[in-house]
Write a structure and sequence with these properties.
The chain is of the alpha/beta class. The protein contains 30 helices and 15 strands. It is 57% helix and 8% strand. The strands form three sheets. It has a seven-stranded parallel sheet with strand order 5-4-3-6-7-8-9, sandwiched between helices. The protein has a six-stranded parallel sheet with strand order 12-11-10-13-14-15, with helices on both faces.
Length: 735
């Protein structure tokens, strides 16, 4: 307490002394002191007001970051930090007025507990003598008076001044002490509220009521409170009311008086801030939405879902670690990623005796279906491990080989195993374009092996190793297994198959400013007007994280279609002389099947690799919308290699700028008319840019079998060596 008194009590004591000199009444001096501190803090309150408006303005962007990068707390924090920097938001600015209240309160407590020092400015020896006389009169030691020693001196000076009159050191201070009246409205400001003195109880009561009044006022006029839900507002109000009540109950009434006045003045401060920097001039309150708290039924359902998932995870993890043969593990982030592994897994089950342990972070992953399990057989074993549990699971992983499509190993929260240092981590990319543009910098640095789809992957991997001085990885020229699935599916279609009306599949990426966020109406409606049936197939991650956006978008588009006179049966949009176009709009959210990809007549995308999948498989052109480029690695140009994401756009189709989307229907019709021209061109592009077309799974599976056998041989050699050493030790002991 002495340190706090020195650091905070002395400077605030001089402010209080000035207030008392201005108005020589103890209680009124506290009120003037409260006003003075509020005036001193007002510029900070105004800064906090501006900061709060920024927070409300960027809240939708913050919510989107949490949705877009859910499950990766490190990346969420990085994106939030970047947003704060762009928008000039500071968490410290918003907290400064509140944080500075703490030293003011602590300082005021010191001032009230030490009136001889801060109000009367007596020297240390005089104060020590006064305390000693008071303790002697009360029959206690000076130490037993504790922090209230100087208050006890003041009370005794008023009730029995004769104690000090005869003392040569204390007597000169007696007139000063007698002149200070600690009472305010009949209550001593030095007294701690108690039930014996009932008037003192008014201070904690009024403190709680003033805190409640402040909260009610803030809920109505504070820009941050306006956007909060019921419990966000009234939960805070309940806590502050209870805290204020208790706070004023355990400290002298003078502190309670300050707290009451401070709460009331805070309401005036907020009103002035709103007047000077009006939120209505900087925010569109019509678009602000309060945080909607799930209903009790929804919360119960979510708790039950989490509980079930957690129990399933514990059970599956225990089952995984009981397995003795864990040579090969596949990890999938969600159900939509199985298609990238499917062909390799099928080949392995048919051409090796390896048991496949398939770990997924999706409770509804298709691998748990009875039909799939029955088709793949008993050597295909599935496990659920949630995003949080995955962190420790991966660190304790015991296997020979791990195959995954998730990059950023060791970069963020997913680390290499601490149990096995010799696990071979294989990365399988789920696209046929660039690695250095579409993945974060250093995303593949900690993988041992890459299954490369084509020459561009090989060149990018080797250039990254050179640039970052990394050890050489094993690069396996596998090709792209999913494309082989698509090629076979297309080959099974009847030759005469034709869509009437033609189908335009809109399949964008899920980065910010993709088609569905930047220009959905401008893309969909002209295609419908041109006589296309439009199927909107969002990226699986976008559908998972922004389902509400999709619902709103679908409703908005349906309303516009119903109101549009252009989107109707019209002979001008006839597909042929006998058939009139009947435009339709379909939103597809089942990603376990790629049927719509190869049945469509044209794919419309932004920077998604679905264009390559579609064009290579069907030999039909793709139409690219030039939204802001999908750049995950801002240093991609350091590799000095042009990504296929850019170079392929005019090789397998055409691109159109966002400002020219009114013509997208015409451009799409022109591409359909040039289908035969593109057929040969796309075939040449595919053969140039992909390895092992038709044999990708065989190549990848063959490598895995070879590496699994090598790992098994190493273990056998190690075991044999250990047995020989043990035998030698036993032989030596026997001799």
């Amino acid at each position: 307490m002495d340190v706090i008194n020195t650091i905070l009590g002395i400077p605030l004591g001089y402010i209080f002394y000035f207030c008392y000199e201005l108005i020589p009444h103890y209680g009124l001096a506290i009120l003037v002191f409260t006003l003075a501190t509020k005036l001193l803090l007002f510029p900070l309150s105004l800064i906090a007001q501006k900061n709060s408006i920024v927070m409300v303005r960027i809240q939708p962007a913050l919510d989107e970051i949490k949705q877009r990068f859910a499950g990766n707390s490190t990346l969420v924090l990085a994106e939030q930090k970047a947003l704060y920097k762009r928008e000039h938001y500071s968490m410290v600015k918003g907290m400064l007025p509140l944080l500075l209240q703490i030293p003011i309160i602590l300082g005021l407590i010191c001032v009230i507990y030490n009136p001889l020092q801060h109000l009367l400015h007596l020297d240390v020896d005089t104060i020590r003598s006064l305390v000693a006389l008071t303790a002697q009169n009360l029959g206690v030691s000076p130490e037993e008076l504790g922090t209230g020693a100087q208050l006890a001196v003041m009370e005794l000076a008023h009730s029995n001044p004769a104690v000090f009159a005869a003392d040569p050191v204390a007597a000169p201070a007696l007139p000063q002490m007698a002149a200070v009246d600690l009472d305010f409205l009949g209550v001593s400001m030095a007294m701690v509220p108690n039930f014996a003195a009932t008037l003192t109880l008014a201070y904690p009561l009024l403190s709680g009521l003033s805190a409640l009044a402040l909260c009610v006022f803030q809920n109505k006029y504070n820009v941050l409170q306006l956007t909060q839900g019921f419990w966000g507002k009234w939960g805070t109000a309940l806590f502050l009311t209870a805290f204020s009540l208790y706070f004023a109950f355990v400290l002298p009434c003078g502190v309670g008086l300050y707290w009451i006045a401070g709460n009331l003045l805070s309401m005036l401060t907020l009103a002035l801030c709103n007047l000077i920097y009006d939120p209505k001039k900087h925010l569109d309150f019509a678009t602000l939405t309060q945080t909607v708290r799930p209903s009790r039924v929804e919360r119960a359902a979510l708790r039950a879902q989490r509980t079930t998932a957690k129990a399933r995870e514990r059970q599956d993890v225990r089952r995984f670690y009981k397995e003795s043969d864990k040579q090969l593990v596949f990890y999938s982030e969600s159900s939509g990623f199985f298609k990238y592994f499917s062909r390799i897994i099928t080949w392995l089950l048919q051409n090796s005796d390896l048991t496949i342990h398939y770990v997924t972070s999706d409770t509804d992953d298709q691998v748990f279906s009875c039909a799939l399990s029955s088709r793949l057989g008993p050597r295909f074993k599935t496990y659920y491990v949630g995003p949080r549990g995955l962190i420790s699971f991966m660190m304790r992983l015991d296997a020979d080989i791990v195959v995954m499509t998730m990059p950023d190993l060791e970069v963020f929260h997913i680390k290499r195993s601490l149990v096995r240092k010799d696990i071979e981590y294989i990365y399988l990319d789920h696209g046929m374009t660039s690695l250095h543009l579409a993945l974060r910098e250093h995303a593949l640095d900690h993988f041992d092996t890459l299954f490369v789809n084509g020459p561009n992957h090989r060149a990018e991997a080797r250039r990254a190793e050179e640039l970052y001085e990394l050890p050489a990885k094993t690069l396996v020229n596998t090709g792209y297994p999913l494309l082989d699935d698509l090629l076979e599916s297309v080959a099974r279609l009847p030759f005469e198959y034709k869509n009437t009306p033609p189908i335009a599949l809109i399949a964008p990426s899920w980065q910010k400013d993709n088609i569905l966020e930047l220009c959905p109406n401008e893309t969909v409606l002209p295609l419908l007007e041109a006589g296309f049936k439009v199927i909107v197939r969002p990226h699986p991650e976008f559908a998972k994280r922004f389902s509400n956006k999709l619902d709103d978008l679908q409703q908005e588009l349906e309303e516009k279609i119903a109101a549009s006179p252009k989107i109707a049966a019209d002979p001008k949009t006839a597909v042929n002389s006998k058939t009139v176009a009947s435009p339709e709009l379909v939103f597809e959210r089942d990603f376990s099947d790629n049927t719509t990809v190869y049945l469509a007549d044209i794919v419309v995308t932004d920077w998604s690799t679905v264009a390559q999948e579609f064009s290579y498989a069907t030999k039909k052109p793709s139409l690219f919308v030039n939204t802001p480029m999908k750049v995950i690695n801002p240093r991609w140009q350091d590799l000095d290699l042009e990504p296929l994401d850019i170079s392929l756009r005019e090789s397998i189709g055409r691109s159109i700028d966002v400002e020219n989307l009114a013509d997208i229907g015409t451009v799409a019709r022109e591409l359909l008319a040039q289908r035969e021209h593109y057929r040969e061109q796309i075939s040449n592009v595919m053969n140039t840019n992909l390895y092992n077309i038709g044999h990708a799974a065989e190549t990848a599976g063959g490598y895995i079998v070879e590496r699994a056998a090598a790992a098994a041989n190493r273990r056998a050699d190690s075991q044999a060596q250990l047995e020989r050493e043990l035998a030698a030790i036993k032989g030596g002991v026997g001799a």
